[in-house]
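It is worth pausing here to work through a concrete case rather than discussing structure prediction in the abstract. The textbook approach is simple: state the sequence, then state the predicted structure, then interpret. We follow exactly that order.
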Amino acid sequence: MTTLAPGTTASSSKDGLTRDALTVLQPGFTGTTAPDWLLRRLGEGLASVGLFGRNIATPDQLAALTAQLRSERGDVLVAIDEEGGDVTRLEVRTGSSFPGNHALGAVDDVELTRGVAFELGRRLAECGVNLNWAPSADVNANPDNPVIGVRSFGADPALVARHTAAYVDGMQAAGVAACTKHFPGHGDTGVDSHHDMPRIDVGLDVLHARDLAPFRAAIEAGSRAVMSAHILVPALDPDRPATLSRRILTGLLREEMGYDGLIVTDGMEMQAIAGTYGIERGSVLAIAAGADAICVGGGLADDDTVLRLRDALVTAVRAGELPEERLADAAARVRSLAEWTSAPAGRTPGASGGVPGSGGGVSSDIGLVAARRALTVTRGAYVPPVAGAPVHVAAFSPVANIAVGDETPWGVGAELERLLPGTTTGSYTGPEAGAQALAAAGEHRIVAVVRDEHRHAWMAAALDTLLAARPDTVVVEMGVPQASPRGGLHIATHGAARVCGVAAAEVIVGG
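Step two, the predicted structure:
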């Protein structure tokens, strides 16, 4: 067996095997223009590119970048992780114009969800993006889940299923392929697979009734892609995580559930895979198990990574560890999806072609409309109005998970500063957070902003301190609202998108 040196035998041979190995990769890169190495690999067979927040500055810049990629390969799949809500790449520096799944699930209007997904898809398509690693179809069965939370439509499988289907329909009506994730369901975990291997210990009956229901709905809706999860589900496969499991990807998803679209892996550099199997071995096992595309690039974003994975796949085929026809089948599915995205869009979301009350079309401000509808407002016994006076916004900030990132602003401070000149803001964390916020507020009314109060004892304690001293404090919960509402005014936004903050600020100022 000959191991290929990066950049030598494989790239010079240009044979079908090497092209197929490149075709199944979905790598990332750094910068806001395409590097030479990426354009070169596109010429050699690479068929997909993944974009992240680091690649995007403005819509015009993004459109120029995707045009640059298409000048090298006209049918390239340009993928992005744009869920809206807390996970945004298009608006990574400002916060999203669209609420995320949890807010849409709270409204529970499938036409609204379809319309939001269509408008988001339209904006992606306008910038040249044609594959979206969304929606999250995970049922949020574990309220302590550190990585899904507001990325889920909710805890009810039927609700998650109908909104997943509506989202897929709306996104694909805009000509952007949806990639429903994280199969077979990441909702009932207490571990983030970016850091370690989560495990879900429930029986087959629970999995089928709860976790798999939204994926069945997505398949029925025609989801063009499905993303696997790096999770161990012993009831399905006691040995291999879903991404590397033939039982799960081929036996369950393909054969039992009848799915015939593209199967994409979650990021292979996540520790659940990289820290156990390594990305080369993991990529070979994933393709052998039934995956068609290897997502890598959130953390590893260079030519060396592409060459390592390409050569690992070629070597595995030549060593008899990976059937050549399996790799060829995977590459064919990638090309098939590229062909679908290259077809004229000309689609409308749903049978009605729009959102009720929007004149038959989808309104460009549908994100703000949805965020306003998603609010749950609970008023205390006595709520003195803010009455135009400046306030102090105390943001109690937990550590952001990797999917969300820490570069996207959140909260209500910016909007309240605009509406109430003289408003001050501060970010607090840890056991002294409440006392620090009280001291900083002075005589100003306090608006306390939290995310997942129920998951952070220090955050709940900070609110205890504030409310004991200042019972008229306004509390804005921008995570999953599991804790009981409290404060002079409590607003649950069901997510931390920019528009969720705008909608909450409107209620605070409007009384």
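Step three, interpretation. The CA atoms of residues 60 and 334 lie 27 Å apart. The first strand starts at residue 25 and ends at 26.
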